[in-house]
Amino acid sequence: MFGKGEYLLRTFTQLKGMPVVDIGDGSFVGTVSDICFDAHGFFLGLLMDEKGLFRKGRIFPADSIFTIGQDSIMINGRSNLKSLSEFRKAYFLQSHQRLQYKAVYSTEGEKLGLLADVYFSEHVGTIVAYELTDGFFADMMEGKKKLEPPGSLTISKDAIVMDFIH
Fold this sequence. Notes:
Layout (H helix, E strand, L loop, with lengths): L9 E2 H4 L3 E4 L5 E10 L5 E8 L7 E4 L3 E4 L4 E3 L6 E2 L7 E2 L10 E4 L4 E10 L6 E7 L2 H7 L2 E3 L4 E4 L4 E4 L3
């Protein structure tokens, strides 16, 4: 599935730092700095560092993303940008309520690894896989694991639980 088929798969790490452009007027809005999830693992949007001296990071919701291209992310207007305060209960891969390197367990009690990254397809807002690590040396010997999205996902401050049965 990975790297095959008709859709290009990329990790969030590959999107980080990518420019964000408004398709309405062609203006540069900022750069991608993080990805945002709810407690069930649903993609909510991307955190952006905005252009300007006193600008705080804001979220462009998944439904305002027009396309994730090879070199930039196109959005449908700045008016769709949301304040970070509107996402207080959200989780982020690398900042705020951080998910990266959080322990991942199956509902059967098996520790699957630590969340390292997520994979996107070209379909906007679709997370098609989770990348897990067992640490630097294990990754060098065996490589990182890629898991397709489970039937359900639960995120807490302590761990991520993936249910592959239901």
